[in-house]
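Hi Y.,

Following your request, here is the sequence exactly as I used it, all 292 residues.
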Amino acid sequence: MKELKNRNCFITGAANGIGREFASTLAKEGMNLFLVDIDLHNLESVKKELTESGANVYGIKCNVTKIKDYQNAKNEFYSKFDQLDLLINNAGIAIGGNILAISLEDWEKVLNVNLWGVINSIHTFLPDLMERRQGHIVNIASGAGIIGLTEPPPYICSKFAVVGLSEALFGQLSIFNINVSVIIPSYIKTDIYLKSKVKYPQKLIEDVGEEKLKEISHDLLEQIKTQAMSPAKAVQKYIEGIKNNNLYVYDNKAVLRSMTTKGREPQKYEEFLKNYNKTVGNSQKPIIKNMV
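Below is the corresponding structure, written out as C-alpha cells. Let me know if you'd prefer a different format.
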C-alpha cells in the first residue's frame, strides 16, 4: 500500500502500546481511523488526543474474542467510511511461566485473543476486501512467533500460528490483489511487559515465596522494557514495510538472522534452544521475553 493519505484503517488493540502508536503515526500520514479495544478508558483518551490534533478518528469498545462484537464494529465502521483499505490486527495478551503451572484456562484465554481475535477479524472483513479486490491485512505477530524460546508457551504458540496464517493468506489472497503483512516485533517498550501474568510451579512458590517471585518478575520485566525499542521508532519501520507490501516486516535484523540459522544450520539452532533452556528455563526464573 504505497499511498496512505485519505485511506481508511481499522486497528484492534488501539488503546495502548503498538496499536496506539500505529493510530498516532497513521493519523499523521492522513489516514482515517477506526479504533477498537476492550480498554474503553484508554481508547477514549487516544480518540480525544488524535481528534484534537485534527485527525478523523472513530472508535468503540470491542472484545476481539467475540464475533458479535466484530459484527457490531463492522457496522459502525461502515456507517462512517465507505470502504476498508488497511486492517491491522494488533490486540494481544501474554501469560507466561512454567508450562505445568499454566492452566488450560490460561491457554484458552491467550489463544482466544491472540489467534482467534485475528481469525474473527479476517472472517468479518475479508469478504468485503475480496469483493473489491483491494486492501491490505496486517497481522501483529512477534519474534516469539519465529524463535520458540522456553517461555511463555501459550504466547509463543499463538504467535507462531499468526505467522503461519499470514503466510497462507499471503498466497491465497494475492490473486485478489489483497496484500498481507506479518509484523515481527522484537523488544518494544510497551506496558504488555508489566501487564503480563507469570504462573509459577507450586513448589517454587513454597520454596521462594510468592511475593519474592513477583518482585523478581517485576524487576526483570522492567529491565527488558528499559532495553527495548520505542514504539514510535518500531512503528515507523512497520509502516515502511507496509508501504513496500512486504510479507515479513521486522524492526530488528537479529530475528531475521535467527530464521536464517534455523533453515541453514538446524543443529546450531537446536543447541541455541537447549542452551537457552538451561540458562533460563531450568533456573525457573520468571522471565518473559518477546511479548509485544
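The two ends are 24 Å apart (CA to CA).

Thanks again,
Q.
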